[in-house]
Amino acid sequence: MFRRPPPASTRPAFLPAGFALVILLGLLLSTAAAASPARLGPDLPYTLVADPSGSATLEQVLPALRDGAPHREVFSRGYTRTAFWLRFTLPPDRVADGEHWLEVKPAFLDDIRLFIRPLGGDGPWRQRRAGDTFDGPIGDIDHRFPLFVLPAEPRGYEMLARVASSSAVMLQMKLWSPAEFLPAAAGDTAFWSFYFGLATLSTLLALVLAVVLGSRLLWAVTGISTGYVLVACVQGYVAWLVPEVGWRLQHYLTGLLTLACYGLLLWMASEALQLRRRLPWAHRLLMAACGLLVVLLLSVPLDLYGEAIRIHTLVYLSTGAVFVLACGYIWWRDRFQPSSVLLGLSPLICMLASLFGLFSAVGWIPFREEIYVVWQYALVVNMLMVTGLAVYQVRIRHLREQEKHQLARALEVEREARFNQRQFMGLVAHEFRTPLAIIAASLQNLRYLGAPDPRHTSRYDKIGRATDRLVQLTDNCLADARLDADDLSVDRRRVCLRELVIEAASLVQPAGHNWRLTVEGRAPSDPPAPLPAWLDPAMMRIALSNVIDNAVKHGDGEPWVDISRQGTAWRVAIRDHGPGIAADRRALVFERYRRATPASPGGRQGGVGLGLFVSRRIARAHGGDLVLADDEGPGCCFLFTLPLLPEDVSL
């Protein structure tokens, strides 16, 4: 039989996706009704004989084939080294009206041998061969699947087929008239042109985005694009486009890429759900499965592909179950957010579609060609969907990084502003000390000289209280700047805590107000016993005077200060008789520049919001603390905890 020149319409035309889609829809609709080939099994029943050793001859199997029961399903037996013989006939009404073409699929079968002779005759058999390990001419027409020309035969044909393969053993045959085949081949070419055009675009998009964005998910999506090469092998494009070495190359690529694609799909599934961060154990399990599938690639050159597929099937089923459980858990934890559901659903659909293809290849379910088409398009849709969602996630992450950068910049500006503010307040407070000292000295001289008019004495008292108030404010500002310094240290010495409290109270005692001091709840003894503490007297005087000043300003009666020992520390409780502090302000009173609302309408104006903040910082610098111990009326109680002398701690 001569080798005919290829029909022009059967050459691949990788059309642009838009034109291909239009042609695809038109051709598929127009050829669906016109193309009605006779198919092996459903239209051409066959008998079957298994040849486990692969050494049986035609004469040995022919009697059993003629007496066997007919089969009408598509022939598929999974991964087995058994050779199979099939016998079927082409009745006269199929081939008597002219030349017909017999198409043989799939492209990954190792060896196919056809024996043909007229039906009812005893003449010699004509043998034709195909398969991706056969080095001779494959088919009579240049097409990506073997096409054998059958001349018109009034008696019909008797045909035998021997099939053997290291891949899945199945056989699809279609008997075409040339008038039916050409438009069907054109529609098929348009279909795969659209597919590979879309596949190329999705692969390039994923690759460019992976390089630019550096996302592991996008690299996984780029890796899964090797599945398109597997599709090209299954559809016979590799052997057709590289005729010299294509069939042998296609033979090995089909096995290698089948194993690799499942591993890459598991990698993409893990990255899509971010299992590395969210479920580390599931990620490690899927990556271990990927590693095992990579090792199984060695089975192809070692001629152990069937055994590798069985191991691969078990691994894929177990890891697929883990992925389904991980999807459910993460969706539930994310409250079924659309982006999370789509990122998990996309590889899940692709995984399920590939499982149906795998099950049909191993012979667990009947073979249907539509399963492979669904899987191949699920691969493209999966890539586009995951790529789009990955870009969306990267964009959201980029916006969050921008917001974080802006927030960091705003915090830096705020930190710098606060530093400048403290520097300015410290500078102003320091400059105030000299004129305030001059005023205090002048006021003291005026008091020594005496006042002829009693009204002058009242004015001297007001000037003194105002001066003391300004001194207290400047001390707070200076203490605030000192407390923020990195090299803050307190100058501790032995002091009497009772005398320190009296000195602090004398700085803030206004006219018309008294305060009460108790020790362990009782009035101090006469003479008073010393209360030794280990403090920085200048700093603690500021801290105590700030709290006593608040008690005077915001209370209606006389403040009460009680000193007691509790365990290994002194406790100084300062209570006022005001209405207390509102609940929504309690957490704010110790913050810098935050003040409680004045309790009394006629009370004095509050300060700048440094008093309690500075007092707490000073107490903590000594290893103690200042807390709001009681905020239930009447009044509130601030409680200092201060250290004893080191030698008194163990007493």
Task: Supply database-style keywords.
Heat Shock Protein 90; five-stranded antiparallel sheet; Immunoglobulin-like; disordered N terminus; 15% strand; 651 residues; 17 helices; phosphorelay sensor kinase activity; transmembrane; alpha+beta; 3 domains
Task: Describe, in plain words, how this protein is organized in 3D.
- This protein folds into three domains: about 35-185, Sandwich (Immunoglobulin-like), CATH 2.60.40.2380; about 265-490, no CATH class; about 490-650, 2-Layer Sandwich (Heat Shock Protein 90).
- About 55% of the residues lie in helices and about 15% in strands.
- The chain is built from 17 helices and 17 strands.
- The strands form four sheets. Strands 1, 3, 5, 8 and 10 form a five-stranded antiparallel β-sheet that branches. A five-stranded antiparallel β-sheet has the order 2-4-9-6-7. It has a five-stranded mixed β-sheet with strand order 12-14-15-17-16.
- A hairpin with a 6-residue loop joins strand 16 and strand 17.
- The longest helix is centred in the middle third of the chain and has 81 residues, at about 370-450.
- It is rod-shaped.
- The model is unreliable at about 1-35 and about 600-605 (pLDDT under 50).
Structural class: alpha+beta
What share of residues is helical?
40-55%
Sum up the overall morphology in one term. Answer: rod-shaped
Q: Based on DSSP secondary structure assignment, what is the total number of beta strands?
A: 17
Number of helices, where a helix is a run of at least 4 consecutive DSSP H or I residues: 17
Beta-strand fraction estimate: 15-25%
Please give the domain count. Answer: 3
Extract low-pLDDT stretches.
1-34, 598-605
Largest sheet: 5 strands, antiparallel
> Radius of gyration, Cα only, in angstroms?
46 Å
Q: Tell me the distance between the termini.
A: 116 Å
- Please state the average pLDDT score: 79
InterPro entries: 7TMR_DISM_rcpt_extracell_dom1, 7TMR_DISM_rcpt_extracell_dom2, HATPase_C_sf, HATPase_dom, His_kinase_dom, HisK_dim/P_dom, HisK_dim/P_sf, Sensor_HK_Regulatory
Protein name: histidine kinase
GO molecular function: phosphorelay sensor kinase activity
Transmembrane segments: 190-210, 217-240, 252-269, 281-302, 314-332, 341-365, 371-392
